[in-house]
Amino acid sequence: MNSLPFKITGVLTDFADSEGIARIEGEALVLEFQIIDNMFGLLKSAPREVTIPFADLAEAVFRRGVFSGVLTLRARRLTTLASVPGIKESELQLRCKRRDRATAAEFASRLSMRILEHDLREMAGSNRPPAALPGGQD
Predict the structure, then answer these.
(1) Which residues contact 50 (CB under 8 A, 6 or more apart)?
(2) Where are the domains of the chain?
(3) pTM to 2 decimal places
(4) Does residue 41 contact residue 16 with C-beta atoms inside 8 Å?
(5) Spatial CA neighbour of 62 closest among 107, 20, 25, 11
(6) Pairing assessment for the beta strands 68-75 and 57-64 based on DSSP bridges
(7) Which residues contact 34 (CB under 8 A, 6 or more apart)?
(8) pLDDT above 90 covers what percent of the chain?
């Protein structure tokens, strides 16, 4: 399972949607997409590709719905997802079809693991002492 087809609804004030493919490459999540008008589906933009390093992602959560599923990506900074259409605050919701729900759940799990692995490597590489627990207890 190398890629996940997705759709972002409500792009360009609900006049268009975005369809694309998400994949994990090296130390980053790659989103490849194009914007399609939602009236007739005839007007399409040129495909674009956005690479998001794991360092810039806070979490990836998949929620299974009755007819589809949603993979929610939350960024650590607002500028991380600024070039992707359909961002709301620091979150991006990638919708997937019912037939792709199992793939999306596995993709979200792998993505979460890679984000955590990156965070752990960053923590191990730093010379900072661990933060104290609330209440002064260790």
Answers:
(1) 30, 31, 32, 33, 83, 84
(2) 3-125
(3) 0.81
(4) no
(5) 107
(6) antiparallel
(7) 18, 19, 20, 44, 45, 46, 47, 48
(8) 58
User: Hunting for tokens 């599923």 — which residue is that?
Assistant: 69
Distances in whole angstroms, Cα of residue 65 to Cα of each of 88, 98, 101, 102, 124:
20, 8, 9, 12, 38
Report whether 64 contacts 101 (CB < 8 A). Answer: yes
Total residues belonging to the chain: 138
Q: Does domain 3-125 bear CATH number 2.30.30.30?
A: no
Q: How far apart are CA 135 and CA 138, in angstroms?
A: 9
Token pair listed for 137: 């207890």
- pLDDT tens figures, 61-72: 999 988 889 999
